Amino acid sequence: MSSCSRVALVTGANKGVGFAITRDLCRLFSGDVVLTARDEARGRAAVQQLQAEGLSPRFHQLDITDLQSIRALRDFLRREYGGLNVLVNNAAIAFQTDDPTPFDIQAELTVKTNFFATRNVCTELLPIMKPHGRVVNISSLQGLQALENCSEDLQEKFRCETLTEGDLVDLMNKFVEDTKNEVHEKEGWPHSAYGVSKLGVTVLSRILARRLEEKRKADRILLNACCLGWVEADVAGDHGSRTVEEGAETPVYLALLPPDATEPQGQLVCDKIVQSW
């Protein structure tokens, strides 16, 4: 592979919306598309399925909760392509509403995967994003709902324009700690681990986009969060009102924003429309 080759990468891409996003990028992106999955067998099976459709994704194993796995992927991208053009952070977990797992355990695992692991991917891969790169963090309107269900004090903190990444990390850790101490609702948190984790992803996206504007403005890298809608996938079960193909539309739109685009930047986008925050 030439280091001038363009490359797009999707995390958690062996099924659901991640798979649909990968399929669309294989059709629309001018360059290689890397499908990543935690389970190598499932990832390779997904690649074979797309190859049967006449598409040509590449596979690379990635467990976003494993820093060594993220760094191995980073080294592969640097070696093969000299960096990365498009990153779609799709990998996430969600407990079903009737899951008997204690809420504090759900909170810890959900925040660890959806927020902290996604943050680790950004920490390792943003430095190798090429000029005019596009980063799409899959969030959810459940994150916005979680914000609205927070206490006024917490809402003020999350909405603060000068909130740092360190401040955000402290807030996410406090939520997990408060669930362990069974005081999260008393402390002003909503009873939704998934919602709080995605609130974290949205706010992280705002902070990272602001940093890109400050440090790499000339590179015009755009980083946004987006909501898929209520999709028929693991999170919604069979109750979603949208197909995974419909869910893929907004992230693919953000991933393929033209090189001269200057916005959206650091926004939460749903149905290709920026949401008020």
Write up this protein.
With 277 residues, the protein is an alpha/beta fold. 47% of the residues lie in helices and 15% in strands. It has an 8-stranded mixed beta sheet with strand order 3-2-1-4-5-6-7-8, with helices on both faces. α1 (16-28) packs across α9, α4 packs antiparallel against α7 (165-180) and α7 runs antiparallel to α8 (193-215). β4 (84-89), α4 and β5 (129-138) form a beta-alpha-beta unit.
Notable characteristics:
277 residues, alpha/beta
Fold topology:
Layout lengths: L6 E4 L5 H13 L3 E6 L2 H13 L5 E4 L5 H15 L2 E6 L13 H23 L3 E10 L2 H8 L3 H8 L5 H16 L12 H23 L6 E6 L16 H12 L12 E3 L2 E2 L3
Parallel strand pairs: 1-2, 1-4, 2-3, 4-5, 5-6, 6-7
Antiparallel strand pairs: 7-8
Morphology: globular
Main sheet: strands, sense, barrel: 8 strands, mixed
The side-by-side strand order for the widest beta sheet comes to 3-2-1-4-5-6-7-8
Radius of gyration from CA coordinates: 18 Å
Number of strands: 8
H/I helix tally:
9
User: Given the helix and strand composition, which structural class is it?
Assistant: alpha/beta
Proportion of beta-strand residues = 5-15%
Give the averaged pLDDT, no decimals: 94
Q: Which residue ranges are poorly predicted, with pLDDT under 50 across at least 5 consecutive positions?
A: none
Instruction: Please bin the fraction of helical residues.
Output: 40-55%
**Could you spell the SSE succession in H and E letters?**
EHEHEHEHEHHHHEHEE
